[in-house]
Amino acid sequence: MEKYVKFNQNRWNNVSRKKGNPYTVPLTSEEYKEAIENELSVGLTVGKTVPTEWFEKAKGKKLLGLACGGGQQGPIFAGKGYETTIMDFSEEQLTKDRLVAERENIQIDTVHADMTKLFPFEDESFDIIFCPVSNAYISDLENMWKESYRVLKKGGLLMVGYMNPWIYMYDGDDVWDSPDKELLLKYSLPYDSSELEKQGNIEINPEYGYEFSHTLESQIGGQLKVGFAMIDFYESKDNRNRLSKYGSDYLANLCIKL
């Protein structure tokens, strides 16, 4: 495991123990029951839910939640009848899925694994891969796309959310913590926090970990290169982020394995 991956893994374990991040707080019983009683509503990004017609295109209900532990979306899928597997490199996040599954008497398989390595599944195992924003924490997307393609069945769907790379051109502390400070362009793209650290330009905060922007060529083009065909796409905004006044800070797409 690369140094930065281990660092990020420890980061997610730590914030999950402290519930120091909204994505580490599992659904309550009330939230779970409300979710199951209503139309399927899950998010790949902040600011918009995934269109229900994306799921209607699936040929089956065997679903891999990729890097989306935390006891939030996995239980909803399981409660809606999906044969759900959640893979995450944070054992603490997977603990949240097991907690909700036991409490609500639903089945969720949890797999502790790193998406920068080979996925621990047979070829053509899943009908759907659902991956909320997470690849900002890995430096190279090639393995993620290749392995996603391998473990999906023919006609299987890849649903993935990711950051719009332009937001990394600005200092995150200024964006979030200094609302009255003028925003100035600071970083060139693609943003690579590990390289900036080596150059002495930034210090990595253990509360946030290493992050990486990716070109649209590596995000979208990377999916197409391994054999996927894109069939839908949307943008969304996190209105808490003042950059969203100027453009969408999140992107999401639906691809099919031909």
Automatic annotation (TrEMBL):
Q: SUPFAM superfamilies of this UniProt entry?
A: S-adenosyl-L-methionine-dependent methyltransferases
Q: Which Gene3D superfamilies match?
A: Vaccinia Virus protein VP39
Ranges where the Methyltransferase type domain occurs: 65-159
For biological process, the GO terms are: methylation
Keywords associated with the record:
Methyltransferase, Transferase
An annotated Gene Ontology molecular function: methyltransferase activity
Pfam families annotated for this entry?
Methyltransf_11
Q: Which residues form a coiled coil?
A: none
The organism sits in which domain of life? Bacteria
Protein name per its UniProtKB record: Class I SAM-dependent methyltransferase
